[in-house]
């Protein structure tokens, strides 16, 4: 190298940073709704950074057979795809699902509606929705005095959480037929007594509440208007206040 040549550039040696240690964590293989009975295909192992581990996660090194052992459990709440599976959000096969999701001090009560959706917001009420319960019954006293069929509707419970919805199926002429729908509600003991009596002396309907109204205290709601009577005369209905 002659005296006038510049020195060669320094050699740059790339050193890769060591990989962060990871641990296999049991996660949801896809989105899982509340109440789903888990199958092995619903779960998978995923590498998780050790510095992001939480004591509630299920790891392969602690529970090698967790994927097989977790199958058969029921989800207490929904999981996102890739979300770690935590035992606190599962119901074991030997435990009751409804009892597990029912808040302390509450009672689960099932009510029956018809199968056409007219008593359940067109069939669009789903678990975890909030509803008002409306009782409809025949006013015997007014029916006798007016000579007409007088029906009364009144809201007996407000802002009630729906735990589950289902169908009543009966066998008729060798065929399974849907004869009604059920909705299981989370109620206080006093509400449970009230709705049980109401179902004996009338029919019950559910009115779906807006998410914006859910959880509002009773005093924040508008004052109810006077109860209205629906008078049926010669096949024509009309509203009148008491």
TrEMBL record:
Q: Which domain of life is it from?
A: Bacteria
UniProt xrefs under InterPro entries: Pilus_assmbl_Flp-typ_CpaB, RcpC_dom, SAF
Question: Taking every annotated instance into account, which residue ranges of this chain make up the domain SAF?
Answer: 23-91
Provide the protein name: SAF domain-containing protein
The record lists the organism as Methylobacterium cerastii
Mind giving the lineage of the organism this protein is from? Bacteria, Pseudomonadati, Pseudomonadota, Alphaproteobacteria, Hyphomicrobiales
């Amino acid at each position: 190298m002659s005296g006038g040549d510049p020195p060669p550039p320094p050699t740059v040696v790339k050193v890769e940073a060591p990989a962060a240690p990871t641990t296999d964590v049991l996660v949801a293989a896809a989105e899982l709704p509340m109440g789903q009975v888990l199958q092995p295909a619903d779960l998978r192992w995923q590498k998780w950074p050790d510095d992001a581990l939480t004591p509630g996660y299920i790891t392969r090194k602690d529970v090698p057979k967790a994927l097989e052992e977790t199958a058969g459990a029921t989800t207490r709440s929904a999981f996102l795809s890739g979300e770690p599976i935590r035992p606190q959000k599962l119901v074991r096969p030997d435990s009751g699902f409804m009892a597990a999701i029912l808040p302390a001090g509450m009672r689960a009560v099932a009510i029956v509606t018809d199968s056409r959706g007219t008593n359940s917001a067109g069939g669009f009420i789903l678990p975890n929705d909030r509803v008002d319960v409306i009782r409809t019954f025949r006013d015997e006293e007014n029916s006798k005095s007016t000579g007409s069929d007088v029906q009364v509707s009144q809201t007996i419970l407000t802002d009630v959480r729906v735990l589950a919805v289902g169908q009543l199926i009966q066998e008729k002429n060798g065929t399974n037929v849907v004869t009604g729908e059920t909705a299981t509600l989370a109620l206080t003991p006093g509400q449970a007594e009230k709705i049980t009596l109401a179902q004996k002396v009338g029919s019950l309907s559910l009115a779906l509440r807006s998410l914006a109204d859910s959880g509002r205290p009773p005093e924040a709601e508008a004052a109810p208007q006077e109860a209205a009577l629906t008078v049926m005369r010669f096949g024509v209905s009309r509203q009148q206040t008491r």
